[in-house]
């Protein structure tokens, strides 16, 4: 059974997420369960999801679902801006509502950092080394 599409292709926030996520080495996009997800060998970011629990209609259509760095996870769980996404929370995933796509870049820096951390937790070590080498070359 296929899932209905649960995102707007024209959403400016999705375009910003794509720009960030697809810049990582080996990153690609696919639609899974009706939502975009970004992956290498494993998914590192979903766009949109729902909240854990009995919340009828507790959808977060403009959110990212990420795997935080294990060192940062306890602090992020205390931050009220984060939520436990349905189905993924037992594996350490968290959700974060993103700003509208047309807000200034400064408001997107935290989003980029969260996606970067999730990429580093899920991507193969060779791709993380490639990412780090790019950063050194850019300095």
Automatic annotation (TrEMBL):
Q: Which domain of life is it from?
A: Bacteria
A GO molecular-function descriptor:
DNA binding
Sorted keywords for this record are: DNA-binding
Query: What is any Pfam family matched here?
Result: YjbR
Q: Does the keyword DNA-binding apply?
A: yes
Entry-linked InterPro entries: YjbR-like_sf (IPR038056), YjbR/MT2646/Rv2570-like (IPR058532)
The answer to keyword DNA-binding applying to this record is yes
Quote the protein name from its UniProt record.
MmcQ/YjbR family DNA-binding protein
- This chain's source organism reads Microbacterium invictum
Taxonomic lineage: Bacteria, Bacillati, Actinomycetota, Actinomycetes, Micrococcales
């Amino acid at each position: 059974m296929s899932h209905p599409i649960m995102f707007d292709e024209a959403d400016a926030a999705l375009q910003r997420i794509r720009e960030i996520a697809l810049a990582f080495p080996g990153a690609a996009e696919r639609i899974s369960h009706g939502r975009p997800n970004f992956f290498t060998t494993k998914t590192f970011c979903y766009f949109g999801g729902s909240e854990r629990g009995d919340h009828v209609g507790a959808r977060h259509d403009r959110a990212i679902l990420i795997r935080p760095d294990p060192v940062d996870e306890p602090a992020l769980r205390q931050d009220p801006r984060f939520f436990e996404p349905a189905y993924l929370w037992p594996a350490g995933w968290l959700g974060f509502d993103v700003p509208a796509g047309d807000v200034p870049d400064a408001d997107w820096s935290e989003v980029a950092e969260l996606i970067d951390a999730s990429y580093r937790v899920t991507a193969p070590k060779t791709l993380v080394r490639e990412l780090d080498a790019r950063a050194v070359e850019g300095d």
